[in-house]
Write a structure and sequence with these properties.
heterodimer, A: mainly beta, five-stranded antiparallel beta sheet, three-stranded antiparallel beta sheet, B: alpha/beta, nine-stranded mixed beta sheet, two-stranded antiparallel ribbon, 14 helices, 35% helix, globular
Chain lengths: 156, 401
């Protein structure tokens, strides 16, 4: 991917994003997502829960998509879920060159929302739809942590 | 003014190639526009509506203002830049038919072009045009998707994997789709890739994002296309046989894959149950036809899983039976029971300008102009467009009667 660094850097800036030294995109911190990133940074995943109808939502947004209430609280979640779908990526995005193949997946949390993520500490022979998983945390920089998932009860 | 039927009266394209060095995006669009006007036998001064897709050398979100000036269209009663990505031809046809049916416009030009090869030209202004477009559209969500390294193919791979899980669809059935479309492309002199391929070729090609291999993915290319839509009275005075819009449907169902997977559950949507169902149902109802009446289907196929899901959603088979419906692919080839993507589709003919060829090919088929790939006695065609990882969909039922 070295030849495309210039283009990729422009891509990152067009997204309003920056990259780690390895080249991975960093979250931009969209408005009103502070509570989410703060919880992840503390390794205690929390999602918005509507104070009116009780629905959890993801991604962070200022209104409940179910009942249009603006009232919500950041509520800790179990971090447990199952794989809804997955794919092994063989042509890496920038910054993932040393991880091929890596698993990009949708994880359905016990609380309901479905999170795009990476599943780590899992092999090609083990990852399947329905696999129980739990949240793990990747500290991308000294300031930024992102949630990912691994097989439940992973004993690493 | 009494409502009148809308018809596609002219179609045109630029050349298509993986990279066209000697023409700008504007050049390509002008090639398509002039070809469409020539095809219709329409005096360009008679065009009073313009719908153009996003992306241009000038970065403008209001590019319709500049483009209409360039063409000397000094009085356009419909004029808009539609940032609809792969849905552009379907959305454009919707706007155009409403405009001519109501009498607001007489002749509406719908045009799009892309130089997708510019995505691979780091540091050039062309490359910046392309990447800035995609970045500014925030596609896909940097914070909640892109930080995990998905490719465009990965979003569709999630759909394919889920379809295999829920319905037992096999890798061979998924691979039969690009094989059938390549067969069709072999009958189309304008297709970029024409050499036959086999199921083994598809499954043996480089893995990109499982279960998708390279040959499950579309071409990246340069090119432009245009069509002109007129009311029936006007259409009957022009050069070619009018191709009528008998019915249409379409819209948007979220976008974020986490939402598509679950958020639309109350309306029956999931990663493998898409808005294509609603779009097709509305189009068939308005047209007064059923899937059994359809002679050919030209649809979005940037990744091979799309036709699998959409044939089910359109109602050509039950949900989950797409794999066995497609089988070895012979049913969906030209000469088969239900020819699909008779021009070769995005994996063999061309990708840019996304999905426009579905409408242009359907028009040519219904006129009887499709040469070696002509579907005999074609009367009813489905032309469709999709964008945003199965979230946006437009379906039109076209007829020559």
């Amino acid at each position: 991917m070295g030849s495309s660094v210039g283009e990729q850097d422009h891509y990152a800036s067009a997204l309003g994003s920056q990259r780690t030294p390895e080249g991975r995109l960093l979250p931009t911190g969209r408005p009103q997502s502070e509570g989410f990133w703060k919880s992840v940074r503390a390794h205690e995943l929390a999602l918005q829960r509507c104070s009116s109808c009780g629905a959890f939502r993801y991604y962070p947004a200022p209104i409940c998509p179910e009942c249009w209430s603006r009232d919500f609280a950041w509520e800790p979640v179990s971090g447990r879920g199952v794989v809804y779908s997955f794919t092994w990526v063989y042509r890496p995005a920038m910054g993932f060159e040393n991880d091929v193949p890596y698993a990009y997946a949708l994880v359905e949390l016990e609380e309901g929302p479905v999170l795009p993520t990476n599943v780590v500490n899992v092999g090609v022979e083990t990852l399947r739809i329905g696999l129980p998983v739990e949240v793990a945390y990747l500290d991308l920089t000294d300031e930024v942590t992102i949630p990912q998932f691994q097989p439940a009860m992973f004993d690493g | 003014m009494a409502k009148q039927r809308a018809a596609i009266v002219g179609v045109g394209t630029s050349e298509f190639a993986r990279r066209i060095e000697n023409k700008t995006l504007l050049d390509l669009r002008l090639d398509a526009v002039t070809a469409a006007a020539e095809d219709a036998g329409l005096n360009p001064r008679e065009i009073d509506g313009l719908v153009i897709g996003e992306g241009s050398e000038s970065f403008s979100e209001r590019y319709h203002m500049e483009f209409s000036e360039i063409l000397g269209l000094y009085e356009t009663t419909l004029c808009i830049t539609g940032p609809m990505g792969g849905s552009m031809p379907g959305y454009g046809l919707e706007l155009a038919r409403w405009a001519v049916e109501s009498g607001r416009c007489r002749n509406v030009l719908v045009v799009q072009g892309r130089k997708e090869s510019d995505a691979h030209r780091p540091g050039t202004s062309a490359g910046r045009t392309y990447t800035a477009l995609h970045g500014s559209l925030n596609m896909h969500y940097p914070d909640y998707e892109l930080i995990y390294g998905p490719l465009m193919a990965s979003f569709y791979a999630l759909v394919a994997e889920r379809h295999m899980y829920e319905f037992g669809t096999t890798p061979e059935q998924l691979a039969a789709i690009p094989v059938a479309f390549r067969h069709n492309a072999g009958l189309n002199p304008d297709a970029i890739l024409r050499d036959p391929i086999t199921i083994d070729d598809v499954l043996g090609s480089d893995p990109i994002s499982t279960p998708l291999h390279k040959l499950h993915c579309c071409i990246i290319n340069d090119g432009a296309a245009a069509f002109i839509v007129s009311g029936e009275a006007q259409a009957r005075q022009l050069r070619k046989k009018p191709i009528f819009v008998a019915g249409s449907g379409g819209g948007q169902a979220g976008y974020f894959t986490g939402f598509l997977a679950r958020g639309g559950a109350s309306k029956g949507y999931s990663l493998v149950r898409t808005l294509a169902k609603r779009a097709a149902a509305d189009a068939f109802r308005e047209a007064g036809v059923t899937p059994a009446d359809v002679d050919l289907v030209n649809m979005s196929d940037s990744f091979a899983v799309k036709p699998l899901v959409f044939l089910e959603d359109y109602g050509f088979c039950e949900k989950g039976e797409g794999g066995s419906f497609i089988g070895d692919g012979s049913r969906i080839r030209v000469g088969g029971e239900l020819p699909v993507n008779t021009h070769g589709g995005a994996m063999s003919c061309n990708h840019a300008p996304t999905n426009f060829m579905n409408y242009i090919e359907a028009t040519r088929q219904l006129r009887g102009e499709a040469g070696e790939r002509q579907v005999k006695d074609a009367r009813v065609a489905v032309a469709a467009a999709a964008a945003g990882v199965l979230s946006t969909h437009y379906v039109s039922v076209l007829t020559n009667e």
